[in-house]
Amino acid sequence: MAQVVQMEVETSLKHVNGAMAEIFSRDFNPTAVVSEPLPPVVAEENGGLVKIIAESEMESESEREIVLGKNVHTTCLAVTEPEANDEFTGDKEAYMAGVLARYRKTLVERTKHHLGYPYNLDFDYGALGQLQHFSINNLGDPFIESNYGVHSRQFEVGVLDWFARLWEIEKDEYWGYITNCGTEGNLHGILVGREVFPDGILYASKESHYSVFKAARMYRMECVKVDTLMSGEIDCADFKVKLLAHKDKPAIINVNIGTTVKGAVDDLDLVIQTLEESGFKHDCFYIHCDGALFGLMMPFVKRAPKVSFKKPIGSVSVSGHKFVGCPMPCGVQITRMEHINALSRNVEYLASRDATIMGSRNGHAPLFLWYTLNRKGYKGFQKEVQKCLRNAHYLKDHLRGVGISAMLNELSSTVVFERPQDEEFVRKWQLACQGNIAHVVVMPSVNIDKLDDFLNELVEHRSTWYEGGKAQAPCIAADIGTENCCCSLHK
């Protein structure tokens, strides 16, 4: 079967002006591609019995189909060999400069309409331009000098110390590193938990980031999905039921400090209380806190609960390219020093040890993080958090004011509302959608003017979608609660 598919793809390849372009024929069948079988990933309780469910069975009927072949190779910018003649090479340089100039215009335009994903696009790192001519690679353990000298570990450890103070753990009690993305932070945190408890069961709410379930597949861990409340928080009543069904095995728990879709913050204190009430002592569970976005925002929200290593947690991770605003994906992962020896290994040719997921790490990322933390500090981040929360409430109130169903969790800057009917509108504003809902993540780079432009355009389009009131907007009470739904039944 795989050979048939390969032949079909190969026959669709055509050479255009010496560059390879891939064109999918009209009768190309994406479903013919045979994917590798995946191991069971989720255990669900059903009358006391555990049923292992394959991923294909977990897809809900409301999910939109994602079709292979949308990003065809005909839209790519081909790489062509330069001519030997210097004159032609000069033409090639001019051509490439033109391509990059047009690409920059595209970036400027797309940035103007960026609302659905949690990236802070408001930054200026001109001072770091002088360092872009160097290949900086942070190999091995951040705390151990290696033979490789072109690194930025001194900046990396400075950043880690800053986050250690934020999460209340002493310098000699923690270990961590700057990751290449938020997913790597989750992969590492869950891996440490698995190494501490090799036979442990991973518990995660249904609204956890997909990287948590990716980790379960990669590490062949038994994973139990826990129900959530309407807000998106973990349902600790269901959590307790599932813990009691597996009292014979240690628990590895992913706690969300801001879920992907609704921005919900799991109640860490209640999770710990539920574990203790279920008979799990502190030496029988490991908690990883996924704080990708809100993990750096919550410490600056008044009366918000604390994520702290003074509580019995094992690790915390955040993304650096989200609220902080780094121009490249990166993150911070911190765990307890006592746990890392189970993972760390000597690497002779580096003259160091390594307990990271990736061998090589972006040495520029610590520079960007260090620069931002120094410029803004705790007070600067506090101002930006307050601005985001104010603007999020502004958006939610104005959506509700014009009759659009919307929800905003108390500890969040993610505004959830009814999914726009026009996919072109969704693409223009780069909205993240799931089922019947979409969301806007209000970041420091999202100001009132941008929100007003979005609101005005959305209201204008809705009058067309729903024919000036003749058609009815969908009811999304099942997703955001009846108190937040503005459909004809609930408004």
Can you offer a commentary on this structure?
The chain has 491 residues and is α/β, with parallel strands linked by helices. It is 34% helix and 16% strand. It contains 13 helices and 17 strands. The protein has helices at residues 2-11, 55-58, 86-112, 153-166, 182-196, 210-218, 236-244, 268-277, 337-340, 365-401, 423-428, 448-465, 477-480; strands at residues 13-16, 19-22, 42-46, 49-53, 174-179, 201-205, 223-226, 251-256, 285-290, 315-319, 331-336, 345-347, 352-354, 406-408, 414-418, 432-434, 437-441. The strands form five sheets. A seven-stranded mixed beta sheet has the order 5-11-10-9-8-6-7, sandwiched between helices. The chain has a four-stranded antiparallel beta sheet with strand order 14-15-17-16, covered by helices on one side. α8 links the parallel β8 and β9. The radius of gyration is 25 Å and the shape is globular. Residues 1-61 have low confidence and may be disordered.
Quickly give the structural class: alpha/beta
Radius of gyration: 25 Å
Number of helices: 13
Mean pLDDT: 86
Order of helices and strands: HEEEEHHHEHEHEHEHEEEHEEHEEHEEHH
Q: What is the strand arrangement across the widest sheet?
A: 5-11-10-9-8-6-7
Low-confidence segments, given as residue ranges, are 1-61
Strand element count: 17
Summary tags:
491 residues; alpha/beta; seven-stranded mixed β-sheet; four-stranded antiparallel β-sheet; globular
Helices, strands, pairings?
Elements: H1 2-11, E1 13-16, E2 19-22, E3 42-46, E4 49-53, H2 55-58, H3 86-112, H4 153-166, E5 174-179, H5 182-196, E6 201-205, H6 210-218, E7 223-226, H7 236-244, E8 251-256, H8 268-277, E9 285-290, E10 315-319, E11 331-336, H9 337-340, E12 345-347, E13 352-354, H10 365-401, E14 406-408, E15 414-418, H11 423-428, E16 432-434, E17 437-441, H12 448-465, H13 477-480
Helix pairs in contact: 4-10, 5-6, 7-8, 10-12
